[in-house]
Amino acid sequence: MAHAVTVVDVDAVPTAVVAAATTWREFPSLWKPLLDEVWACLRAGGITSGCRNIMLYKDAVPNVEVGVMLDRPCPLTGRVVASVLPAGRVARTVHYGSYADLGAAHRAVTDFCGAEGLSRNGVSWETYGPHHDDPAQVWTEITYQLA
């Protein structure tokens, strides 16, 4: 699948997240409990839908923030804190299909940056579209912040 990559300027987007320092090996078993924690907090605050799930990778360690784009105020409790997807110039693509194939979308963006001489600052994130039982209807936006 070809992934068209664009370079755009983005505004900061408020998020509600749980932050963690992990390893790439541990992350696949960690992200869902963190996201469940965020959604439990949101439901307690009266939000049951409408917030896109996100995963922000702050570096290669990875230090991560797992949560949602917060589209309205909500009291945050426990380990759930307010944060932001950062503003700035980014390179991004949209992947349609199974999450198992997200690596190709990430490679498309990093390869594009290399070919265009664009430096990345180490911050990237994934924004997930609404859940759908048909993997062909699933979409994920892959974004890398440029230096």
From TrEMBL:
SMART domains: AraC_E_bind
Record-linked SUPFAM superfamilies: Probable bacterial effector-binding domain
InterPro entries: AraC_E-bd, GyrI-like, Reg_factor_effector_dom_sf
Coiled coil: none
Location of the AraC effector-binding domain: 3-147
Official protein name in the record: Effector-binding domain-containing protein
Record organism: Kutzneria buriramensis
